[in-house]
Design a protein that fits this description.
Elements: H1 27-33, E1 40-46, E2 49-55, H2 70-84
Antiparallel strand pairs: 1-2
């Protein structure tokens, strides 16, 4: 067994890719990182490594319903694009 001070990772587990090329994040990791349904995860690729990290972004949510017109959707997109420039 590797001594605690020499371990490279806080947690390590083998995951299986299913037929839809998906993986399930183990409960222990979800709880530790407070990952919930709807959270944003960023995937980075570094050489032969896949790095998955939680991102503290909030995506705009469009109102749902049958009365949502193309104009409403386009207006929301334009508003989101204007707000993107506010962070500079």
């Amino acid at each position: 067994m590797i001594p605690e001070n020499l371990r490279k990772y806080d947690y390590r587990k083998n995951l299986i890719v299913d037929q839809n090329y998906q993986i399930t994040i183990p409960k222990e990791i979800r709880e530790k990182l407070q990952i919930n349904v709807g959270d944003i995860l960023v995937v980075d690729v570094e050489n032969d490594r896949i790095i998955l990290r939680k991102e503290d972004l909030e995506l705009p949510v469009l109102k749902g319903g049958q009365n949502l017109s193309v104009e409403d959707i386009e207006a929301s997109i334009r508003k989101g694009m204007r707000n993107e420039g506010d962070s500079d």
